[in-house]
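The protein record reproduced below.
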Amino acid sequence: MASCASRRGAVLLFGDSITEQSFREGGWGSALANYFMRRADVLCRGYGGYNTRWALEAMPHIFRAGDELPMLVTVFFGANDAVDAREPMHVPLEEYQENLIEIAQRLQRLGVPRMIFITPGRVGEEQRLRFQKRRYGNKATGVLERTDNNAREYANACARAALELNLPVVNLWAEMHQNPAWKELLSDGVHFTPQGNQCIANSVVRVMERHYPELVVTPDLSLTAQLGEGLGGKSFTRGSVSELPIELPLMMEIDPANYKPHFQNLLSVHKIIGSPLD
């Protein structure tokens, strides 16, 4: 998964359009890439309109035996599975939960050592109707193809699948439910604003802190002014505590008069790439 020219690990984001759009300006994938700067590559494998049925069909084309394994995969499906049963993307609730379990088990059989499930978020129903009107004009049906109640049921199913597998989960629906201003996190009732994307990234990092502390990059605030700001306005280029090695020396560590020694003996194996937890 990671480039053969790099000894960085890889974090792979697997999901639907909310993942596909995660590297747009202000996206949650971009925020995570900034968080892992010079420590891990964040790879986007998001597919607009996909449900868990299609995700299972796509997996052999994305995850191949023998490929370098990502050290972490986020699995973020459900917004399309949860559409009205008359819609072609719909997947029944029980099958959705079973599909998530199968996705995770396939990744485990390949040797992927860490996963995080992300549940569907809330649906802004009024926003969704306004979006429908903007998109289809007079042809808009005025009938919701997605409801907040369905999203809640599918979020609960995702959480149950994670519990059965003993995997960590970001319960996005529940987190949004606790936020009185949750509708401000959505752009069209389903997809997220930059503020909403930041909330997703922050939630993923919080789950890593609890379940995969060896991946956490603790910011060194002394470097913020020198290297720029990252997630939450902090520099994550060099963590004061992190098991993820930084790639290549920082500029302030290089002696301009004798720089070559700084680039020698840098071929140590990245111990966290694709290695299961002990």
